[in-house]
Amino acid sequence: MALGTPGFPETTVDIIGAAHDAMRAGKNQYVFPPGDLRLRERIAAALPVPSDPETELTVTVGGTEALFLALHTFIDPGDEVVLLDPGYEQFRSTVAFAGGVPRHVPLHAPDWRFDPDELAAAFTARTRVVLLNSPGNPTGRVLTRQELGQIAKLAERWDSTVICDEVYSGFVFDGREYLSIAQVPGLAERSVLVGSLSKSHAISGWRLGFLRADATRTAAMRRVQEITTNGAPGPLQLAVGHAADAADTQAASQEMGRRRDFALEIFTGLGMKISPPEGGCFLLADIGPLTGGRGDGRSFTLELLDATGVVVVPAAPSFADPGRGAQYVRIAFNRQFELLYEVERRVRGFRPSGQ
Question: Which of 3, 98, 333, 340 stands the most exposed, by the fewest C-beta atoms within 10 Å?
Answer without folding.
Answer: 3
